[in-house]
C-alpha cells in the first residue's frame, strides 16, 4: 500500500485538510497535494486502465510527463476528460473519475484484450480490417467505435470563461527551476524586460528535492531568495501555473496560464492564453527521467525513481514499504538514500552497470543498502500491484537468479533534456553518446526574422546534470539572451554550488539485454498507447525503418503525452532492431503544444455572443421587434422574411411580394456596399474597373455596372451614381463592400499609383431604405420635403433632399422591376426614417420585405445575382450582359482574359430562363442531362440551374440556368434529374418573366 | 433629436468602465499630407497641426489623427461636422483631396479606469505592445480588436477611446466588457 | 507567425494584421498582348526555396500595400519596401546579398 508518512513534506500544509472524491469514494488530502499524491496517500495506486489492452495502471511520474494517471475531472458543464492527476492541484470538492474501463476500475471486461494481446500486435488494425470490404460497416466499425476514444466527451457547454493576452518581451525564460530563475536574473540585470514562466505552482524545479548546496545555502533557501529578488525587479514578470506550450516563427511564444483550475470558485477567467512576442527565448525546461524496458515495467507500483523521491519529499507519501531501485545511472541512488533515511526499506539497488557509480553509490552502501551491479530485472511479479521482482544478469537472457519480494520498483534509465520548445521552431539536436541523450545543438538554434538564433537552452534542458554546471550555463544563457535582445548584460559569476559527483551512465535499452520474445512482449515503451519493445521490433522487421513510419505504425508517442517517456526508448529500440546508430535513426518531429491545452484557451473570448462579429444595420432592432427570420449574409444578419403568427416562411415571402407588387413594400438595403471614388482620374479608373463606360455618366445619373477580375470572371455588380465631375458613388453587393474597396485600393496602390484617385468606404455611413411598388411615389410625397416626381427624379437618377424633415439622398433605381426609390440617410437617422416610412405607409398597407422576397422579385425580372448566377467561373458574356460591356474601351480589368480561346468558345453555357412543364419548382443546383456518358461513366450534362424559386406573381416555379447553346434553344424542353429520384422537365425561355418591357419601374 | 448612436449610451463597470461615447463627429481627409495648403486647411478647421506618423493631436473638442500616409481622421463634435467638412472643402477647393464625413459609419467607446487596467483590457484584444514605454497618450493605433478592425488612443493615462465600425459596435462592446470583467486582472502594467 | 515591418506606418505588424498578396513585381499584360505573355502574367509564378519577393497589405492597420523580401525556407526577412516600385531597390538587394551571396530571383541578382 502507498500511504502518507509522518514526516514533514516540502509542499504540504498539513493544517489544512482537503476533501475530494475518486470514483465516488470520499478521500482526504492536504493543501499542496496534487491529485496523484493525494490518491497515493489514500492507498489508491491504480488510477486507470490502458487504452488498448485495458491493463491496470498506476501513476508512474510526478509531473507533466505522466502517461497513465489520466482522469475525468468535475461534472456537468465543468467536466473535462484526460486530465493528468500529477498536474492537477487538489482543491476542496474535487471529483475525479478513472477512464477506459467498464464496468469498474477494479473489474474491467475490456481487459480481455490483454489476454489476447499477442493477437493484437502493432499494425493489427491495418492488417485485420482490410478485408472483406463488406465487413467494415457491419462488423469492424461497430467494434472499433465501441472501444475507441480516450476519456468521455463533455456533454454540456463549458461554464467557464477564457481569454487571450498579448505581451511583448525582450526575453522569455521558460521554466522556473534553478536554471530558469538564474537565467532570468542574468537577463534582467541588463535591463531587459523578462517574462519567466513556470508550469507548476512552485518555483525551484527538481533541485530542492535532489539536494545540493548553493552559495552555502540549501537549494530551497537559495530559490526563495532568488524569487524575492526577481519580484522586486520592475522589468521582471513572474508567472506560476503558466506553461509555455509552443515556440513559433519570429519569436512567437504561447503561454498557457491556468488561473482557477486549482480554485474553481474564484472569479475570473479559467485559462489565459499568453500570445507573447519575444526577442529571445531561454528554454530552462529541465529534463525527464526515462523508464527502463523490462517485463512488467507497467505494473502499478513500478515508477520513475525521481517520482518516488518527489512523492516522498514533496508530499510525504511513501509509494511502498519495500522499494527495489533499478538503474543504469547514479541519480536513482538518491531515491534509495531518501527512502532509507525516511525509515523505509530498500531491499536492493539493481544497477545494470558492471561497476556501480560514484559518491551516491558509496553513500547508499554506507547506509547498508545492498547494491547489485551488472544485474537487471527479468520480470516484475504481480498484476494490479507489484509483489516482487525477479533478478537476472543484465548481460544474459533473463534466467532468474533471485526473487526479491517488494511492493514498489523505482526505475531510472537516465535523463532526457526537455528539448520540445527548442525543437518546435526548427532547433536541431545532437546525440550525446557519453550522456546517452539528445541535447540541443547550440550551433543550430531556431532562427528569427533577422536570421539569427533566438532560442537558448539552459541547464538540464541543455544536457547538463550537475548543479554547478547547470547554474553556470543558466547564467551564461540569460546573459547571452539579453545581449542578443540588444542589452548589455552585467558580468556576474554564477552562484557556487556543491553536489555529488556522479559516475557515467551506461545506456540500457532492454533489460536484460538478451531478453527473448516473451519478455519483450511485456516490456512497455509507450504506456498510454500500449506500445511494447516487441511492437517496435515487429515494425522494423516489416520494413517500417523510418522513425516517422514506425511511430505511425505502432502509434508510439502518439498519445496525449506525445511520448515524453517513450520516444527515446522507442527510437533506441528501433535503432537496435535496424542495427543502426541512434543519431542515424533520429527523432520524430516535436510539435506544440508541450502538453495538451484547453480548447477554451485557444478560443479565448470568442464564444457565445461574441463567437464571431455579427454586423447589424441601424434598423436591426426594428426587424427583431417585428419577428424577422434572419439570414446570415457574410457577417451581416438580414431579415429573410417577417413571418406572422402561424405563417410559414414561404407564405410570408409570398405575402411580402404580392403586397409590394400590388401597393408598396420597404426593404432594409443598408448592407449594400457604398464606395466613394473621387479625383480627376476617377472616371478613367472606373472605366478600368467596370466592363462598361463610367466616365461618360453625367452627374445626377446612375448606371448599372459589372466588375470582373483580371481572370475575366464576374466578381461584383451594382449601380454607380455620379455625384459631381470628380466624384462617383459605387454600390457593391452586400458581401462585396470590403472586398471591392480592397480591390480598388490594390489597383490604385500597386499598379496605377500615379493616378489621382482617392476612395472611401462609406457603406456604414448610410442606412439605405428601398421603398418599392406602385404606391412608392405617393408614400414619399406624403412624407414630403422634396420633389420625387417622374420629371424631377426620373428612373436611373438621384437627388439630394429632405424627407419627413430628415436629410436624404434618393436614388431611383430598381431591383424588383417596380417603381422604386432607394433612400440613403446617415446611419444614426436610419431608424427614425424607417419608422416614419412605416408609419406613413400604413395607409397603403406598406409591407416590409426580406431578402427572399428581394431574390424572388429580381428573378422574376431576370436580374442576375452575384453568387447565384456567378460562381467564379462565369463571365458577363455567359449571362447575356454584353450590353453592359463597352466595345469602345481599349482596356478594362478582365478584357484580355475574356479574349482567351476558352472564354470565346461558343460552347460555353449561357443564361436562359427555365420554366417547368408542371409549374413545380426546379431543385437548386440541378444539372440538365444530355445524351451519352463521359469518360467516368457519368451522364453527360448540358446545363445547370443557378436560381430557382416559386413565383407568387406568376403562380408557378421559375428559374434561371446556364445551358449549352441556351439562347438558341428557346422552347426546347430539357431534363433535370433531382436528388429525390424525380426528373424535372423544364422549357427553355427568356429569363425575364415579369414586365419584359420595364414599364413598371419607369413610371 | 432623432439621431441614435449604435449602442445608445450603454455602459459596463468592471476593471475599467466601458461606455458608448455617443455620437462623435469624424471626418476622413485624404490628400497630400505634405502640402502646406492641406496643413493650413486643417489648422483653420481644427486649430491643430498635422500629427506625426501614428500620432494624434488634440485641443479642446477637436483632434486630428494620423491614419495612413495620405489620410487623416478629424474629430469634432457631431453637430459641427457639416461645418468642418464645408470649411475643409472650401479651403481645399481645386486640390486633389477627399473630404468625407464618416461620423455615422463608426462607433466610439470610452474606457476609463486605472492606467494599468486600461492597458490590459486593450492588450487582451489587440496584437499591440501596450506597455507604457511603447504606447502612451498622443499615440494612435489602428489594429485588430479580436476579429474586427479598430483603432484606439489614450486621451490621458486613465481614459482611452476605441473606435470601430458601427455595424460591429455590439461585438466590440461585448469584447471590451468581457475583457474588463472582474477577476481578469493580469497585473503586468503596474 | 511572421512579423513584417510596414514601411508606411512603421508598425512591426504580426501576420494577423496583414493580408498576403502573392508574388511581387508582376508586369501587367492587357488587351493586345500575346497569349504567352498574358498566360505568364496571370498564372506563371516563382516557387523558390529561398529568396522571394512578395506583396503584403497592412489591412488591419494603415491599409497600405508594401513589398517584402524574405527567405521562404528560414522565414528570414531581408527588408520591406514601397509597393510603388517596379523592382526591388538597391538597398534591399544589398541586404540580401550580404546574407545570401549569389542569390537570384527571376532575372534579378
Automatic annotation (TrEMBL), chain A:
Residues 619-889 form the GCVT N-terminal domain. The keyword Ribonucleoprotein does not apply. Residues 169-421 form the FAD/NAD(P)-binding domain. Residues 910-995 form the Aminomethyltransferase C-terminal domain. Signal peptide: none annotated. SUPFAM superfamilies: Aminomethyltransferase beta-barrel domain (SSF101790), FAD/NAD(P)-binding domain (SSF51905), Folate-binding domain (SSF103025). It holds the Pfam family Pyr_redox_2. Keywords: Oxidoreductase. Residues 522-604 form the SoxA A3 domain. The keyword Oxidoreductase applies. Gene3D superfamilies: 2Fe-2S iron-sulphur cluster binding domain, sarcosine oxidase, alpha subunit, N-terminal domain (3.10.20.440), FAD/NAD(P)-binding domain (3.50.50.60), Probable tRNA modification gtpase trme, domain 1 (3.30.1360.120). Belongs to the GcvT family. PANTHER family: AMINOMETHYLTRANSFERASE, AMINOMETHYLTRANSFERASE, MITOCHONDRIAL. This is Sarcosine oxidase subunit alpha family protein. It comes from Thalassovita aquimarina. The lineage of its organism: Bacteria, Pseudomonadati, Pseudomonadota, Alphaproteobacteria, Rhodobacterales.
From TrEMBL, chain B:
InterPro entries: SoxG, TrmE/GcvT-like. Pfam families: SoxG (PF04268). Gene3D superfamilies: Heterotetrameric sarcosine oxidase, Probable tRNA modification gtpase trme, domain 1. It comes from the Bacteria. This is Sarcosine oxidase subunit gamma.
TrEMBL record, chain C:
It comes from Thalassovita aquimarina. InterPro entries: SoxD, SoxD_sf. This is Sarcosine oxidase subunit delta.
Amino acid at each position: 500500500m502507498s500511504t502518507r508518512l509522518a514526516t514533514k513534506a516540502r509542499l504540504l500544509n498539513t493544517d489544512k485538510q482537503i476533501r475530494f472524491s475518486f470514483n465516488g469514494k470520499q478521500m482526504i488530502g492536504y493543501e499542496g497535494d496534487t491529485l496523484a499524491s493525494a490518491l497515493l496517500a489514500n492507498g489508491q495506486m491504480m488510477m486507470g486502465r490502458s487504452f488498448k489492452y485495458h491493463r491496470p495502471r498506476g501513476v508512474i511520474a510526478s509531473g507533466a510527463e505522466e502517461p497513465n494517471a489520466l482522469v475525468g475531472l468535475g461534472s456537468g458543464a465543468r467536466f473535462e476528460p484526460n486530465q493528468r492527476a500529477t498536474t492537477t492541484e487538489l482543491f476542496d470538492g474535487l471529483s475525479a473519475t478513472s477512464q477506459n474501463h467498464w464496468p469498474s476500475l477494479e473489474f474491467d471486461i475490456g481487459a480481455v484484450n490483454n489476454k489476447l494481446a499477442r493477437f493484437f500486435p502493432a499494425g493489427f488494425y491495418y492488417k485485420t480490417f482490410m478485408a472483406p470490404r463488406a465487413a467494415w460497416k457491419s462488423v469492424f466499425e461497430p467494434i472499433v467505435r465501441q472501444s475507441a476514444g480516450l476519456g468521455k466527451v463533455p456533454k454540456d457547454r463549458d461554464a467557464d470563461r477564457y481569454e487571450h493576452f498579448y505581451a511583448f518581451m525582450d526575453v522569455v525564460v521558460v521554466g522556473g527551476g534553478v536554471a530558469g530563475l538564474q537565467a532570468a536574473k542574468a537577463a534582467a540585470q541588463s535591463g531587459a524586460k523578462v517574462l519567466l514562466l513556470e508550469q507548476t505552482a512552485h518555483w525551484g524545479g527538481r533541485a530542492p528535492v535532489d539536494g545540493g548546496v548553493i552559495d552555502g545555502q540549501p537549494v530551497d533557501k537559495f530559490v526563495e531568495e532568488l524569487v524575492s529578488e526577481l519580484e522586486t525587479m520592475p522589468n521582471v514578470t513572474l508567472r506560476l501555473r503558466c506553461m509555455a506550450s509552443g515556440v513559433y516563427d519570429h519569436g512567437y511564444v504561447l503561454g498557457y496560464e491556468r488561473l482557477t483550475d486549482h480554485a474553481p470558485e474564484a472569479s475570473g477567467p479559467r485559462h489565459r492564453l499568453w500570445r507573447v512576442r519575444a526577442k529571445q527565448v531561454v528554454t530552462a525546461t529541465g529534463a525527464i527521467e526515462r523508464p527502463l524496458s523490462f517485463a512488467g515495467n507497467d505494473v502499478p507500483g513500478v515508477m520513475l525513481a525521481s517520482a518516488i523521491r518527489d512523492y516522498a519529499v514533496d508530499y510525504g507519501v511513501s509509494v511502498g514499504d519495500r522499494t527495489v531501485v533499478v538503474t543504469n545511472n547514479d541519480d536513482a541512488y538518491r531515491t534509495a538514500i531518501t527512502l532509507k533515511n525516511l525509515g523505509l526499506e530498500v531491499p536492493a539497488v539493481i544497477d545494470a552497470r558492471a561497476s556501480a557509480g560514484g559518491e551516491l553509490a558509496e553513500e547508499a552502501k554506507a547506509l547498508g543498502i545492498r547494491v547489485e551491479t551488472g544485474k537487471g530485472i527479468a520480470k516484475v511479479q504481480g498484476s494490479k500491484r507489484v509483489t516482487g521482482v525477479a533478478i537476472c544478469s543484465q548481460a544474459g537472457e533473463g534466467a532468474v537468479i533471485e526473487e526479491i519480494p517488494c511492493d514498489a520498483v523505482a526505475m531510472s534509465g537516465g535523463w532526457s533534456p526537455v528539448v520540445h520548445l527548442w525543437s518546435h521552431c526548427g532547433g536541431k539536436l545532437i546525440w550525446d553518446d557519453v550522456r546517452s541523450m539528445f541535447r540541443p545543438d547550440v550551433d543550430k538554434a531556431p532562427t528569427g526574422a533577422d536570421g539569427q538564433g533566438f532560442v537558448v537552452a539552459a541547464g538540464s534542458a541543455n544536457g547538463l546534470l550537475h548543479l554547478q554546471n547547470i547554474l553556470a550555463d543558466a547564467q551564461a544563457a540569460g546573459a547571452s539572451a539579453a545581449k542578443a535582445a540588444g542589452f548589455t548584460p552585467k558580468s556576474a559569476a554564477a552562484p557556487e554550488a556543491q553536489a555529488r559527483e556522479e559516475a557515467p551512465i551506461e545506456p540500457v535499452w532492454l533489460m536484460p539485454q538478451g531478453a527473448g520474445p516473451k519478455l519483450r512482449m511485456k516490456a512497455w515503451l509507450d504506456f498510454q498507447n500500449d506500445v511494447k519493445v516487441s511492437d517496435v521490433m515487429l515494425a522494423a522487421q516489416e520494413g517500417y525503418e523510418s522513425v516517422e513510419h514506425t511511430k505511425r505504425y505502432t502509434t508510439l508517442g502518439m498519445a496525449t503525452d506525445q511520448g515524453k517517456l517513450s520516444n527515446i526508448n522507442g527510437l533506441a529500440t528501433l535503432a537496435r532492431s535496424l542495427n543502426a546508430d541512434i543519431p542515424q535513426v533520429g527523432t520524430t518531429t516535436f510539435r506544440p503544444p508541450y502538453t495538451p491545452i484547453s480548447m477554451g484557451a485557444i478560443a479565448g473570448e470568442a464564444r457565445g455572443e461574441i463567437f464571431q462579429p455579427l454586423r447589424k444595420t441601424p434598423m436591426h432592432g426594428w426587424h427583431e421587434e417585428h419577428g424577422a427570420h434572419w439570414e446570415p449574409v457574410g457577417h451581416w444578419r438580414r431579415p429573410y422574411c417577417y413571418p406572422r403568427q402561424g405563417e410559414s416562411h414561404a407564405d410570408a415571402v409570398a405575402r411580402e411580394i404580392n403586397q409590394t407588387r400590388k401597393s408598396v413594400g420597404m426593404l432594409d438595403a443598408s448592407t449594400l456596399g457604398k464606395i466613394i471614388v473621387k479625383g480627376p482620374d476617377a472616371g478613367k479608373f472606373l472605366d478600368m474597373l467596370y466592363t462598361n463606360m463610367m466616365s461618360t455618366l453625367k452627374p445626377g445619373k446612375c448606371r448599372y455596372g459589372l466588375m470582373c477580375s483580371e481572370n475575366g470572371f464576374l466578381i461584383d455588380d451594382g449601380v454607380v451614381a455620379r455625384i459631381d465631375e470628380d466624384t462617383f458613388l459605387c454600390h457593391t453587393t452586400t458581401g462585396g463592400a470590403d472586398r471591392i474597396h480592397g480591390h480598388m485600393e490594390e489597383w490604385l496602390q500597386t499598379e496605377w499609383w500615379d493616378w489621382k484617385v482617392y476612395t472611401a468606404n462609406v457603406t456604414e455611413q448610410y442606412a439605405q431604405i428601398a421603398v418599392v411598388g406602385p404606391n412608392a411615389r405617393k408614400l414619399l410625397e406624403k412624407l414630403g420635403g422634396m420633389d420625387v416626381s417622374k420629371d424631377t427624379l426620373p428612373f436611373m437618377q438621384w437627388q439630394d433632399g429632405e424627407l419627413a424633415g430628415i436629410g436624404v439622398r434618393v436614388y431611383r433605381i430598381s431591383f424588383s422591376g417596380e417603381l422604386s426609390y432607394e433612400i440613403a440617410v446617415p446611419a444614426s437617422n436610419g431608424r427614425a426614417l424607417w419608422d416614419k416610412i412605416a408609419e406613413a405607409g400604413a395607409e397603403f398597407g406598406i409591407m416590409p420585405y426580406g431578402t427572399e422576397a428581394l431574390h424572388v422579385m429580381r428573378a422574376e425580372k431576370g436580374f442576375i445575382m452575384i453568387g447565384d448566377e456567378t460562381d467564379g467561373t462565369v463571365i458577363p458574356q455567359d449571362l447575356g450582359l454584353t450590353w453592359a460591356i463597352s466595345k469602345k474601351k481599349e482596356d478594362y480589368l478582365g478584357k484580355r482574359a475574356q479574349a482567351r480561346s476558352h472564354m470565346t468558345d461558343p460552347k460555353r453555357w449561357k443564361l436562359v430562363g427555365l420554366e417547368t412543364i408542371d409549374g413545380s419548382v426546379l431543385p437548386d443546383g440541378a444539372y440538365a442531362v444530355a445524351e451519352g456518358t463521359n469518360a467516368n461513366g457519368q451522364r453527360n450534362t448540358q446545363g445547370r440551374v443557378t436560381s430557382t424559386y416559386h413565383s407568387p406573381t406568376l403562380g408557378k416555379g421559375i428559374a434561371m440556368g446556364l445551358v449549352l447553346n441556351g439562347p438558341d434553344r428557346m422552347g426546347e424542353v430539357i431534363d433535370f434529374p433531382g436528388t429525390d429520384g424525380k426528373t424535372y422537365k423544364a422549357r427553355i425561355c427568356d429569363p425575364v418573366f415579369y414586365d419584359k418591357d420595364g414599364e413598371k419601374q419607369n413610371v | 433629436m432623432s439621431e441614435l448612436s449604435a449602442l445608445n449610451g450603454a455602459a459596463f463597470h468592471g476593471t475599467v468602465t466601458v461606455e458608448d461615447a455617443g455620437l462623435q463627429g469624424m471626418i476622413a481627409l485624404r490628400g497630400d499630407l505634405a502640402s502646406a495648403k492641406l496643413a493650413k486647411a486643417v489648422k483653420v478647421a481644427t486649430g491643430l497641426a498635422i500629427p506625426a506618423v501614428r500620432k494624434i493631436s488634440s485641443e479642446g473638442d477637436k483632434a486630428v489623427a494620423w491614419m495612413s500616409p495620405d489620410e487623416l481622421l478629424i474629430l469634432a463634435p457631431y453637430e459641427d461636422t457639416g461645418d468642418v467638412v464645408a470649411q475643409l472643402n472650401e479651403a481645399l477647393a481645386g486640390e486633389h483631396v477627399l473630404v468625407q464625413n464618416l461620423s455615422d459609419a463608426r462607433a466610439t467607446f470610452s474606457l476609463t479606469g486605472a492606467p494599468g487596467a486600461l492597458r490590459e483590457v486593450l492588450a487582451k484584444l489587440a496584437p499591440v505592445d501596450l506597455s507604457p514605454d511603447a504606447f502612451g497618450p498622443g499615440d494612435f493605433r489602428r489594429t485588430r480588436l479580436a476579429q474586427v478592425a479598430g483603432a484606439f488612443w489614450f486621451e490621458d493615462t486613465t481614459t482611452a477611446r476605441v473606435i470601430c465600425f458601427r455595424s460591429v459596435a455590439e461585438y466590440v462592446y461585448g469584447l471590451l466588457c468581457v475583457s474588463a470583467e472582474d477577476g481578469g486582472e493580469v497585473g503586468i502594467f503596474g | 507567425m511572421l512579423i513584417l515591418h510596414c514601411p508606411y506606418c512603421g508598425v512591426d505588424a504580426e501576420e494577423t494584421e496583414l493580408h498576403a498578396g502573392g508574388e511581387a513585381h508582376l508586369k501587367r499584360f492587357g488587351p493586345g498582348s500575346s497569349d504567352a505573355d498574358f498566360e505568364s502574367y496571370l498564372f506563371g509564378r516563382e516557387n523558390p526555396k529561398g529568396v522571394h519577393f512578395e506583396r503584403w497589405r497592412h489591412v488591419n492597420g494603415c491599409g497600405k500595400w508594401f513589398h517584402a523580401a524574405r527567405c521562404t525556407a528560414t522565414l528570414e526577412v531581408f527588408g520591406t519596401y514601397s509597393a510603388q516600385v517596379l523592382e526591388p531597390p538597391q538597398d534591399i538587394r544589398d541586404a540580401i546579398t550580404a546574407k545570401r551571396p549569389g542569390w537570384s530571383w527571376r532575372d534579378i541578382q
